[in-house]
Specification:
With about 325 residues, this protein is α/β, with parallel strands linked by helices. It has helices at about 35-40, 65-80, 95-115, 135-145, 155-165, 210-225, 240, 245-260, 280-290, 315-320; strands at about 1-5, 50, 55-60, 125, 145-150, 175-180, 195-200, 265-275, 295-300, 305-310. Helices cover about 35% and strands about 20% of the residues. Helix 5 (about 155-165) links the parallel strand 5 (about 145-150) and strand 6 (about 175-180). Helix 1 (about 35-40) packs across helix 2. It is globular and about 55 Å long.
Length: about 325
């Protein structure tokens, strides 16, 4: 089994001072937000912008309406998504961090293919697409990929359906599936005829609603003490988005055990892992189930550190024979 780790920040040294984060080099959000441009495309964003104590324009990232409006502006300006919204109390994800995941998956595919494969024949599976449809939007805009998005929340999928219908370029690029058995992840979703270049997932982080609420309160207090331009969660989110039995490790454990049943239908299984302490148990389990290769890709967004863990069951010969 091969196991590799990517911890390199490939950004030019001279640009470090101008960058607000250590985001992926192809991430269009690695510099400070151009609010003049964003307001031009989304005038309502102006209502949420203020100048902080450092003389910089920003928004209040603890305000859900401000975060959602910023997302709308970013989607219009950088992804040509003219109509986007999410229901009240659903997760409004920070687009820069979501874009990073997509661009690192592109690098992962390139490591197996020799170059980044583009076009509709590259199909990704978004586990827990939520109501926002963010990962498929970014992946389709950046690389022309197609997606299947699944979720256990029918209301969330209905909102994704509306986003797709309201933005015709997405109609042929994204399909949606309801997971009718919430205890499963890939079962019912990966069908015998399916073939996915990758799966992606942002697992529920917490083990209970109480734990999720305490975490949200800590984040609010942090923002009140120190306003930041870095995007964070707007502290909304439904049960399935924020917590599950066993938390992050429990969810990923289930994902790994199920992935064994689809060794030839998925090139790279991937998931975000927020808790570094979970890595050793994840590696041990992947070794146990016979993953042929494991990769860990470190990501950083401001002071927040996360990583992607990717694994495959394909042999080197099977990887070379895979047609993207």
């Amino acid at each position: 089994m091969k196991k590799t780790q990517n911890t390199t920040d490939s950004s030019p040294k001279g640009e470090q001072a101008k960058q607000k984060t250590s985001l992926h080099p192809r991430n269009p959000h690695r510099f400070r937000y151009d609010f003049e441009l964003l307001i031009k495309d989304c005038p309502q964003l102006k209502n949420f912008i203020f100048t902080n104590e450092h003389g910089l324009e920003t928004i209040d990232f603890s305000n859900p309406d401000a975060v959602k409006t910023l997302n709308k502006a970013l989607l219009i300006t950088y992804y040509d998504i003219q109509n986007w919204d999410i229901p009240t109390d659903y997760l409004c994800p920070p687009i820069p961090g979501r874009a990073d995941y997509i661009h690192y998956i592109a690098d992962l595919l390139a490591s197996s293919n020799g170059s980044i494969p583009e076009g509709e024949n590259v199909v990704g599976l978004d586990i827990g697409i939520g109501s926002n449809c963010i990962y498929p939007i970014i992946g389709n805009t950046a690389y022309g990929w197609s997606f299947v998005g699944c979720d256990i929340d029918e209301k969330a999928l209905q909102n994704c359906k509306k986003i797709i219908a309201d933005n015709p370029k997405l109609i042929d690029a994204i399909s949606l599936q309801l997971q009718v058995e919430p205890r499963f992840i890939f079962k019912n979703i990966i069908l015998p005829e399916d073939k996915f270049a990758f799966t992606l997932c942002n697992p529920p982080f917490h083990t209970s609603a109480e734990e999720a609420a305490k975490s949200a309160l800590r984040k609010v207090n942090t923002l009140e003490n120190k306003k930041s331009e870095m995007p964070v969660l707007n502290f909304g989110g439904q049960h399935a988005e924020l917590w599950c039995k066993g938390g992050e490790l429990g969810f990923i454990t289930q994902m790994i055990y199920e992935s064994v049943k689809y060794p030839l239908q998925v090139f790279w299984f991937t998931t975000l892992v927020s808790k570094k302490d979970n890595l050793s148990r994840i590696y041990k389990l992947l070794n146990k189930v016979g993953a042929s290769e494991i990769k860990t890709i470190d990501m950083a967004q401001g002071q927040k550190i996360s990583r992607i863990v990717a694994w495959t069951f394909l042999s080197e010969t099977q990887q070379k024979d895979w047609k993207f």
